[in-house]
Specification:
By secondary structure, chain A is mainly α. In chain A, about 70% of the residues lie in helices and about 0% in strands. Chain A is built from eight helices and one strand; from the N terminus they run E-H-H-H-H-H-H-H-H. Chain B is mainly alpha-helical. The longest helix of chain B has 27 residues. The chains are: A mainly alpha, B mainly alpha.
Chain lengths: ~170, ~180
C-alpha cells in the first residue's frame, strides 16, 4: 500500500458507507456497461467519498455516495468520448454458470440491453440506471437529480419504452 | 399495456442476471477502498485566513523595509544593474541613469576618427568665424508649423548643409575604413 494512502476505515468513522457498495457497484455497472469499468468506478467513488465524508457529513450517506458514483460515471463517459473505453466491452461480458448455449444466448440478450441503455439520451439513461441498476426509489432519484417525482416517472416510462423497442428490434429481428 | 409490462419483466430479468453475474465477480475479488491522505488539520488553512495572513505578511515586510531604510529615497542604486537600467526611462527620470548620450561630455567610448573629424569641423568653424554647421535633426522645428519647416529646410539646402554633411561622412567613412 502506498504510504500516501490510508485505509478507509482508519481514515473516517463511517462503517456504513461500505455497507451499500453492491448498490454502488450495480449503479456503476449500469452506467459503464461492463464489470471491469464498474469496479474501477466503484473504487474511485469510494476514494472520493472517503476523502470528502468528514467535510460534507451527509444526512443521507447512501444517496450521497450514489450521487458521487453517478458523477464519477459521467466523468468516465466524458473521458471515454475522447480516449475510448478503458476496457473492451467484449472482454467483460456477463459470466453465467450455465450451459454454453444458454450463456451465449443470454450474453447476447444482455449485450443488446446494455447497448439499448447506452444509446439512451442522458436524462433518460440517468433515471433508468438509477432505478433498475441502483434500485433507487422514485423519491431518491428525484432528490439525486433535482427533479420532481412525476418527471422521474415519465422519464422512466419513456426510457423503458425506448429500451424495449430497441431490444425487440434487435432480438426478434 | 400488459404486453409492455410483460416484455419489460423480461428485460428486468436480464438486468438482474447481468447484475448478479457482475456482483458475483465483484465480491470474489478483495475490495479495499482507499482515500488519498490529506494534510493534517492544523496545516489546512481556510482561504479567507490565508488571504489575511498573506496581507499581514506583506504589511510587515513593507514596514520592516521602511524601518531599515528610513525612507524610500535612500534606496541605493544597484551598481550591477545600473548599466542595464541606464536605458530605462524611469531609471533616467530618477536621476540615476548614466546615459552614454548625456550632454556633460562624459560619454562612452568614441571612435578616434570621429573625434578628429569633430575637432577639425569645430576648428574650421572657429577660423572662418561661422557657427558650426547645424544638421537638420538638430534643428528645433515647431510642431504643426509646415511653413517654418520648409523655410528651415530651404535654408539648409541653400547653405549646402546636406552636401557638406555627406562629404564629411564620406571622408569619415574612408578614414574609418
Amino acid at each position: 500500500m502506498s504510504p500516501h494512502l490510508a485505509p478507509a476505515r482508519e481514515q473516517c468513522e463511517q462503517p456504513d458507507l461500505l455497507a451499500f457498495r453492491d448498490r454502488v457497484f450495480c449503479l456503476c455497472l449500469g452506467f459503464a456497461g461492463n464489470s471491469a469499468d464498474a469496479r474501477d468506478l466503484t473504487q474511485e467513488t469510494y476514494a472520493k467519498a472517503l476523502s470528502h465524508y468528514a467535510a460534507d457529513r451527509p444526512a443521507n450517506p447512501q444517496a450521497w455516495v450514489l450521487r458521487i458514483a453517478r458523477n464519477t460515471c459521467l466523468d468516465l463517459a466524458r473521458r471515454k468520448k475522447s480516449r475510448g473505453p478503458l476496457h473492451p466491452i467484449s472482454e467483460y461480458a456477463a459470466v453465467d454458470r450455465e450451459t454454453p448455449e444458454t450463456v451465449a444466448g443470454r450474453q447476447e440478450q444482455i449485450a443488446i440491453v446494455r447497448r439499448a441503455i447506452a444509446g439512451l439520451p442522458g436524462r433518460l439513461r440517468d433515471v433508468l440506471v438509477m432505478r433498475e441498476y441502483g434500485e433507487l426509489s422514485y423519491q431518491e432519484i428525484a432528490l439525486a437529480l433535482g427533479i420532481g417525482t412525476g418527471t422521474v416517472m415519465s422519464r422512466l416510462n419513456r426510457a423503458r419504452s425506448a429500451v424495449l423497442r430497441f431490444y425487440q428490434e434487435e432480438h426478434h429481428g | 399495456m400488459d404486453n409492455q409490462d410483460k416484455a419489460w419483466r423480461e428485460i428486468q430479468l436480464l438486468i438482474e442476471r447481468d447484475k448478479a453475474a457482475a456482483l458475483d465477480e465483484f465480491r470474489r475479488l478483495p475490495f479495499r477502498p482507499e482515500a488519498p491522505a490529506r494534510p493534517p488539520a492544523w496545516f489546512r488553512l481556510h482561504p479567507a485566513l490565508a488571504a489575511v495572513a498573506a496581507s499581514l505578511l506583506l504589511a510587515v515586510a513593507l514596514l520592516s523595509f521602511w524601518l531599515l531604510r528610513l525612507n524610500w529615497e535612500s534606496v541605493p542604486t544597484a551598481p550591477a544593474g545600473s548599466g542595464i537600467l541606464s536605458g530605462s526611462f524611469l531609471y533616467a527620470q530618477a536621476g540615476r541613469g548614466e546615459s552614454p548620450r548625456s550632454d556633460d561630455g562624459a560619454a562612452g567610448p568614441v571612435s578616434p576618427y570621429f573625434a578628429a573629424w569633430a575637432d577639425t569641423l569645430e576648428r574650421s568653424a572657429t577660423i572662418s568665424g561661422e557657427s558650426p554647421p547645424t544638421f537638420p535633426e538638430q534643428m528645433v522645428v515647431e510642431r504643426g508649423d509646415p511653413e517654418e519647416v520648409s523655410r528651415k529646410i530651404g535654408r539648409a539646402i541653400q547653405e549646402d548643409v546636406f552636401e557638406r554633411l555627406l562629404s564629411d561622412l564620406h571622408e569619415f567613412h574612408e578614414k574609418e575604413a
